[in-house]
Inverse folding.
């Protein structure tokens, strides 16, 4: 197999402990031609200094670069800083990898193998398991399917025990938790859209790539482990807001003509449901409020970071 250069981008925001664990696992991979770019996304703790110390003790073995943002630019904005650096530094592939992951030694070799197998494949993802494993390993992501009626993506085989997969699996979208992107894709469609700030920018990017003629594929023998929602807790207020707004934003951008009207009809239905919950279910009032705020900001075309 050829060994194109891969730039691995790890985005850190107040999570240096997870980042160092991820870097420790990456130091053991078997792929021979890669560099690691850590982007500190405006952390307010001691992340940058801790990561710098780790890099200084390992840089004789692997090529590392630490880039420090002065503010939190979101998932897309932070990763775009790393992507620009990677392309300038001669990357053939760019790998977006969550800092709260641990990787198997052959995970990158398997990703590149699938990428090099077909020119039509532009984006490749790993099979991702929940970490820590409790009993039999359970799948967090093994391909994705977009549900346009509910304006969201769903993980296939979510929480199921491992199964046999075909050698190659073309899928609707891949998660930015582990996303290998060919240089040609980035050169044609650009980086991630920072309109989303957090969540759905990866799904939107996959849709853009597919529209431009590339396929998204799962590398079934590439395995990583994910600690799940370390920077933003699942079902936290910000999680609810971004999922509500960004799912609708993605659906609007991906559809044209009369279908956009259907997105607004669905958003009105969703808003009506949340109003009922807000008025009659006190226990769900905060939940409903954040979803309604996300829908409202979608209606007024408010993108980027949620107002504090």
């Amino acid at each position: 197999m050829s060994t194109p250069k891969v730039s691995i981008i790890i985005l850190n925001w107040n999570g240096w402990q997870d980042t160092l664990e991820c870097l420790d696992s990456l130091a053991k991979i078997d792929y021979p031609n890669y560099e690691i770019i850590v982007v500190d996304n405006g952390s307010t703790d001691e992340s940058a200094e801790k990561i710098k110390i780790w890099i200084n003790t390992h840089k004789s073995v692997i090529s590392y670069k630490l880039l420090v943002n002065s503010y939190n630019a979101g998932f897309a904005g932070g990763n775009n800083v790393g992507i620009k650096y990677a392309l300038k530094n001669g990357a053939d592939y760019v790998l977006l990898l969550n800092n709260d992951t641990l990787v198997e030694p052959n995970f990158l070799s398997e990703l590149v193998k699938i990428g090099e197998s077909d020119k039509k494949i532009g984006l490749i993802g790993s099979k991702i398991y929940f970490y820590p494993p409790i009993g039999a390993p359970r799948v967090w992501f093994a391909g994705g399917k977009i549900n346009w009626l509910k304006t969201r993506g769903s993980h296939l085989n979510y929480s199921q025990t491992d199964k046999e997969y075909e050698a190659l699996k073309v899928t609707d979208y891949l998660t930015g938790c582990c996303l290998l992107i060919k240089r040609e894709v980035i050169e044609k469609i650009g980086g991630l859209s920072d309109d989303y700030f957090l969540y759905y920018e990866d799904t939107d990017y996959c849709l853009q790539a597919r529209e431009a003629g590339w396929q998204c594929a799962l590398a079934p023998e590439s395995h990583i482990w994910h600690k799940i929602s370390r920077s933003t807790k699942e079902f936290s207020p910000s999680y609810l807001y971004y999922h509500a707004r960004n799912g609708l934003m993605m659906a609007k951008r991906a559809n044209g003509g009369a279908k956009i009207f259907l997105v607004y009809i669905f958003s009105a239905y969703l808003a009506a449901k949340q109003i009922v919950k807000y008025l009659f279910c006190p226990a769900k009032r905060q939940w409903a409020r954040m979803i309604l705020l996300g829908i409202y900001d979608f209606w007024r075309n408010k993108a980027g970071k949620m107002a504090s």
